[in-house]
Amino acid sequence: MIYELRTYHCLPGRLPALLQRFETITLGYFEKYGIRQAGFWTTLVGESNHALTYILAWESLAEREQKWNAFAADAEWVAKRTETEREKPIVASISNQFLAPTAFSSVK
Q1: Which domains are seen in the chain, by residue range?
Q2: 22 DSSP 8-state letter
Q3: Strands 2-10 and 51-58
Q4: What is the mean pLDDT of each successive set of 10 residues along the chain, which is 108 residues long?
Q5: Would you say the C-alpha torsion 25, 96, 89, 81 has a positive or negative sign?
Q6: What are the residue boundaries of the NIPSNAP domain, all occurrences included (predicted)?
Q7: Which strand (E) or helix (H) includes residue 77?
Q8: Residue 36 in 3-state DSSP?
Q9: What gap in Å lies between CA 4 and CA 54, rounded to an integer?
Q10: In whole angstroms, what is the distance from residue 69 CA to residue 67 CA?
């Protein structure tokens, strides 16, 4: 199992719009494409409280490529994402990392 750590850095004041989009739109498409989430977090204390961090679980990088590309190319998803940013953008930047559990990790 590998894990993808993704952080969405929002424009000031736009985190609530991103959270709503994930809760009401994005997670349904994750389910449609079999994208498994391990958790979602907002920053309580840290560099910025305008961020959403989440972890996705993948069997392999090949699985990630197939499922993520299908999700990203879904015309209905793209249209709904675009609609949520009609008035103004939500996300300033996205960062991601792929993580492999150590032999002694409680998460495998």
Answers
A1: 2-99 (3.30.70.100)
A2: I
A3: antiparallel
A4: 97 97 98 97 91 97 98 98 95 97 91
A5: negative
A6: 3-105
A7: helix 75-84
A8: strand
A9: 8
A10: 6
